[in-house]
Amino acid sequence: MLLLLLAAQAAAVSSEAAPAPAVAVPVVAETPAAIVLPALTNIRIRVLADLASKQNATGDEFDIELVEPISVAGGYVIPSGTRGRGWVIHADKARFAGKAGELLLGARYLKLGNVEIPLRSMKVGARPGKDNGGLAMGMAVAGGAVGGVASMFITGGQARVATGMEAMAKIASDVELPVALLGRDNRSFVPVQAAAPVPVPVPAGSTPVSQPK
Fold first, then answer.
1. Is the pLDDT of residue 108 over 80?
2. Number of structural domains the chain divides into
3. pLDDT of 77-101, one tens digit each?
4. Element (H, E) at 212
């Protein structure tokens, strides 16, 4: 009887000392509050104004918008259609004696919520589907007061840029963007469906052969 009591007490002590089994706790990745958009990221923008060397002056501003979404880390994007501002760095009318009009444009920023994303290196291109053969384009870099903005120098008669003309630009410096202002990259991939089997005609009078399963 004494041996049974001692064994029972030992079992009780052993059960009390045994550690509780470990429970796996799932690790949930935290969503960052902000993501950095790096400098020199290439973007495509669209001019939303009719501009001409005979009607615009140096310092005039105009609207621009983002043509294609800008991908940032974590599957987030700055959505297409995000608006911003550009400006006329230099404008000069065409004059007599063959002097062509001059129009030098720069991209200033995109505005995402209350965050301004600074831009630089605007290069105006031909508008798709339009005949821009009469425009002679040369590269020019403006320095000093305009902060080293680069853009296309357009000449040939009265220089013009039509609404909808697209241009390339770059992000001027690293920008911290709150995730709450960003969109998600919702591009989906449609799986390729296997083609349905084509039935093989069986000649009249022949016995069809069963296919192995």
1. yes
2. 1
3. 999 999 999 999 999 888 776 678 8
4. none
First to last CA, the chain: 70
Taking the C-alpha atoms of residue 3 and residue 24, their distance in angstroms, rounded to an integer, is 40
Residue, of 141 and 72, whose pLDDT is higher: 72
How distant, in Å, are the alpha carbons of 75, 179, 194, 210, 212 from that of 116? 21, 15, 48, 70, 67
Domain that holds residue 157: 34-184
| 206 falls within a domain | no
Cα atoms in the Cβ-side hemisphere of radius 13 Å centred on 9: 6
For residues 132-157, average pLDDT: 39
Mind giving me the DSSP string for 47-101? E-S-EETTT--TT-EEEEEESSPEE-GGGEEEPTT-EEEEEEEEEE---STTPPP
Of 114-123, 143-152, 183-192, the one with minimum mean pLDDT is 143-152
Phi first, then psi, for residue 148 (nearest 5°) are: 75, 30
Q: Give dist(CA 9, CA 1) in Å, integer.
A: 13
User: Is the residue at 54 inside a domain?
Assistant: yes
Share of the chain above pLDDT 90, in %: 44
CATH code, domain carrying 168: 2.40.128
Q: Domain for residue 194, yes or no? A: no
